[in-house]
Amino acid sequence: MTVRFAARLALGASVLAAGVTALPSAGHAAPAPDSATLAAVTELDPATGLNKKYPVKPGEVVPAALGVTNLGDAPVAGLVVQIRVLDDLDLAVKHDNCWYAADSNLEAAWCEFDGELAAKQTLAIVGDVVTVKADARPDKVTSIVFHWYGKQWVDAQGGVRQLADGDAGQGTKAVRGTEAALTLAERELPLPETPRPINFAYAQLVTPPTTQPTPTATPTTAPTAIPTGGAEPTATPTGAPGAGASGGGGGLPVTGANIGVLAGVGGALLLLGGGGYLIARRRRTRFVA
Prior knowledge:
Elements: H1 3-22, E1 38-41, E2 53-56, E3 67-70, E4 76-86, E5 89-90, E6 98-103, E7 106-117, E8 122-126, E9 131-132, E10 143-150, H2 151-156, H3 160-165, E11 175-176, E12 183-186, E13 198-205, H4 257-288
Parallel strand pairs: 2-13
Antiparallel strand pairs: 1-3, 3-8, 4-7, 4-10, 5-9, 6-7, 6-11, 8-12, 10-13
């Protein structure tokens, strides 16, 4: 056996050993599927037929319907829901039947409900679950992911607390709430076209419109008949001396009572002229004769 062949054989053996080590052991087998046939349901927008978008303002609770329908023919004893939100949606209300975990911008809650879900029955969560942060931004308010499980399956995975720890960030653990428990109540919610145990509810941030400054009402002042210079004009009587004199830009013709006086003087002058003419003619005729 040559040295080169021995080296290749050793390399192949190490790769094979690594592959065998990577195979899952019997103790890490994938969990059995959930025997409960559940569908996560929420409200639909009648205009689009899609999941409803809930308009919310900063600091408000998202009134999303987080429901579950039992599609099976047998009742389901006990339910668990996993609720996840991102960014500016917050799981701020801490209920004592829920375990809460956070990892960076992801928050998760695992909530457990006793009781029974009858076949074909639909229940929905009652209580505040998701809120909007006070300084929320529109692009950071998106969806709520909720996933329903049968309690029997969750217990087989180690229980709700262990599953919640799996959503916690590195070096952290899930924390149990201390306030009143969430409850479930019967509610009519439509089934999606493809019923699944996981679904989405959407929140949409409503920002108040930018207020424009209200213009102040300024009364309009009527223009005054004062020429430039500020001196108020004085009324000059018609026919006053100087009216129409040169350099005044041309005045109006003399009218009114003064025209009658001038006409009378002209008539008298005309009569006097005519009389003088007749006397002179008679005298001239008399001298000629």
